Amino acid sequence: MALSTGPSQSENQFTELGSDVLLRTPGASSSTSPGNPKHPRLVLIFGWMGAQLPHLHKYSQAYSKLYPDATQVLVRCERSVFSRTEVAKQESMIPVAEVLEDLGYIPSSVRTKPDPATPDVDEAGNRSVLVHAFSNGGGYQLSTLSRVLAKRKIERLSPIANALILDSCPGSGGVSTSVTAFTSHIRNPFIRYPSAILVWLFFSSSHLLAIILRRKPWVDALKETLNKPDLLPWMDKNTPRLYIYSKTDHLIPWKQIEAHAKEGEEKGFDVRSEVFEKSDHVAHARTDPKRYWGAVEDVWNAAVKLGDIYKAQRFLDIFWI
Length: 321
Hints:
Elements: E1 14-16, E2 21-24, H1 28-31, E3 42-49, H2 53-66, E4 71-77, H3 86-91, H4 94-102, E5 121-122, E6 125-126, E7 128-134, H5 135-150, E8 161-167, H6 175-183, H7 189-212, H8 218-226, E9 240-246, H9 254-266, E10 270-276, H10 284-287, H11 289-320
Parallel strand pairs: 3-4, 3-7, 7-8, 8-9, 9-10
Antiparallel strand pairs: 1-2, 2-4, 5-6
């Protein structure tokens, strides 16, 4: 499906919940109607590192056209994220967790067991969620949310329709790639080159410290987290996972993304890939929007079929009690 990503009012429809988190709720007509049961009710978008809001809003606008009844949570990844303490990183994801609580996707933080009084199906239809992460930065913020929710020790939730999209990630291009990612936006060479040296020193020392402390480098930890079956509380190995990447990506080697997808397949995950030949890093939608958004719709349709199976299983469980 080809979607226009021209100027829109989507930027004005977001409410800022924190320094990194924005919320967009459906319009009045959508919020009072049951909506399309084949559409996700919630879309979580994790932007790439340093992404400007106008660029991220293009994806929000496209999702608004595809799934107008969906609530959207947009998570930014500023370059400063990587220099924050772990406590600060997790605190920045608290607004996302609170939205998930308010919408009934996870139990309230004051209790860790699902409330039996809360039904699996609300008046608007099945709860369902599509997660879309861009580049290592988006994957990093997603992994942080995963750690935040894992600390709550939430019991296994009733399965719902859900899907995961990993766009241009994950991959470990090394320190040189990190330097490029952090400094490519700086046009002034008198600023860019000194900045590159500082970034190189930061990531080199971080990598050395990880070796000394026998910790996994952050990229290795990211890869491991993204290939957990229960990355988020409603996910399992049956969650459809779509990798979108390009063979001409100048930041993330496509072979590394392919290897991560293969590892997931070996774990029994439902993995699919959309491989572009000539698109740049996180630029696949701009290169071929029809193909890109068609792949998004396909993976969500797979999630809907999975949700129907879960719904039938719950019905049978109730019937045979």
